[in-house]
Every structure is written in structure tokens, then in C-alpha cells.
Amino acid sequence: MKVAVIILNWNGEVLLEKYLPSVMEHSAGADIYVADNASTDSSITFLKNNYPTVKIIQNTTNGGFAKGYNDALKHVEADIYCLLNSDVKVTSEWISPVLSAFETLPNASIIQPKILDHMRKEYFEYAGAAGGFIDQLGYPFCRGRIFQALEKDEGQYNDIQEIFWATGACMFIKSSVFHELNGFDEDYFAHQEEVDLCWRAKNIGHKVFYVGTSKVYHLGGSTLSNMNPKKTYLNFRNSLFSITKNLPRRKAALIIFIRLLLDGIAGIRFLFQLKPRHFLAIIKAHFSFYKNFRKMYKKREKKNFIEKYYTTKSIVWSHFVHQIGKFNILVKD
Questions:
Q1: DSSP codes of every residue in 221-249
Q2: How far apart, in Å, do the first and last CA atoms of the chain sit?
Q3: Is 195 exposed, middle or buried (0-12, 13-18, 19+ CB in 10 A)?
Q4: HSE value, Cβ hemisphere, 13 Å, CA-based, for 19
Q5: Residue 67: is it exposed, middle or buried by C-beta count within 10 angstroms (0-12/13-18/19+)?
Q6: Is 271 helix (H, G, I), strand (E, B) or coil?
Q7: DSSP label at 72?
Q8: Rounded Cα distance, 298 and 192, in Å
Q9: How many Cβ atoms from other residues are within 10 Å of residue 297's Cβ?
Q10: For residue range 158-181, what is the model confidence (pLDDT) as tens digits?
Q11: pTM (whole model) above 0.90
Q12: Contact, 111 vs 96, CB < 8 A?
């Protein structure tokens, strides 16, 4: 299988200088692309001067993660796309276990490796950890990461496991599947577009896997930190988008109603924490959701929706009330 590693870049010369060398060293046999989202720094000059073998795709606008990849992948020919953040350090043999999994796992269309924290290498990283799941209300979490609680990597997830969603920080996807799904939903701009992509894939029979024998180290937060109000806005809004698009109508209506109430509670919590900008971000997210509701509803796939999509009924209740911070305990609970 022909593999192409595509790194999306926006004003990330410093990140390319630091993290691209590992990709070049450990990706023998793969084509390396940098898809540039109309950067205004000297990223392109840096690449041309230092990495002439890297193929450069120059997008005309900064359409965020979703549109950036959609535009770039029109110009990439490969069997497998690896979508890789510019702040990821890869390791030796990070590709071969994934390719083996594609060959042996039936219906495997999307795969992610183990994502560890570049700054604390013995811990899982927030964006993806050991594979993503959602609860009954559509809240995303991971093996190895529940909200801000990160587990130490002690080999507990050195397995191959079917998951619900794979992180966009390092996602391998069959090119045929990516184009069958018409890529990412560009209305998301960034954040949780990979959850929606995987959800749509599963709704039409594809499977998503985690391969723990492949690992990479992710810096994380290089574009937006976990506590940036813009990220709060995108996460709250885009999660509502995904529920609207990917669940049966009656179930989606009930869950959206509950989520709007819980979002209000989260907003009040932000006020008590003296974080008014996050409170305003949730309000803004809701207004954007109302504005775009009809548009999202029209995007619903005209096929069967999967019924068993969640791992636990409420990750909010389990984590904040029962103080569960580890996936294995959550499953037992």
C-alpha cells in the first residue's frame, strides 16, 4: 500500500524545524507532503531550502483543519493518507504496525497510533491518547484521557482495539474512504471534525481502530491550547453539530436538549471559576448552532444510523460525581 504523510501547516516554521526531522528519518517508503494554509511566515522558504524532497501543496486560504486537508488531499495520490500534526515527533517503525493492521483487520478504514505527551513522555497526550470514544450524550473522551485527567503509560493499552474515533493529530485513513465521505465537514473549521468523520464512517459500515504497537509524541496546544476560549467555542458548537448529523432524529432531539442544559451549567461553572470569556464562548457556540441547525440537519446521511455508539451513559457523571479518571475503571463501573 502506498502511504502519503500529509502535514498541515499554518505559520509553523518553528514546529517544522523541530518535528519534521523525525518524520523524514522514520518514514522510509512514504511520500511526505506539507500542506500550507496560506502561511505568512517563511515556512515555504524553509522547506525549499532544507527539505527539497518534501512535496509542498499551497492552499490559497487558511480554511482551518477541515478545509485545509480537504483542499490538499485533492492533490495527493496514495492508498493510505496519514494526517499528521506539525507538532508530532514520530518514532522508528511507527508506520509498519499500522499497515499490518490495515491488511489483517476486516473493514479497518481508519487507524490511530498511541499518542504520548511530548513534554511528559511517560503520559498519554490529551488529543487522542489510546483511542477515542463518546458517551451517550456525545461527549468525547479517550482511553488514557478523561477530560483533563491523563493516565501514565504503563503498557495498559499496548493492544489493538476497535475505537469510536481516531485523533486528527495522527490519523491513518484509506484514501478511498476519505473521498467516499467527502472529507471533513468544512463548517467545523477545526476541532472534533475527526469525531464527525469517524462517526459518519461507522454509520456506513467502516471500522476505526487503535494500534498500540505504533507510537508518536504530540506537543499539543500549538494552535489552540485546551483552555483557549476559541477552542471552547469550537468544541461546544461542533459537538452539537455531530449529534445533529449522526443520530436518529428523535434521539438527536432529546440529546441536544439535555446538552444545551448541561452546557448552561458548564457556563455557570466557568463564571464561578472567574473565566467569563469561556462563559461567553459557550453562548456564542449556542447561537452559532441555532444559526446553522437547518444546514447541519440537511447533512444527515440517508442511511441507517448505528444504535450502539457510546461506551458509557455519562462521562460527566462518572468523572465529576464518581471521580473516575481512568478508562479501565470506567468500563468496570
A1: -SSS-TT-HHHHHHHHHHHHHHHHHHS-H
A2: 41
A3: buried
A4: 23
A5: buried
A6: helix
A7: H
A8: 19
A9: 12
A10: 999 999 999 999 999 999 999 999
A11: yes
A12: no
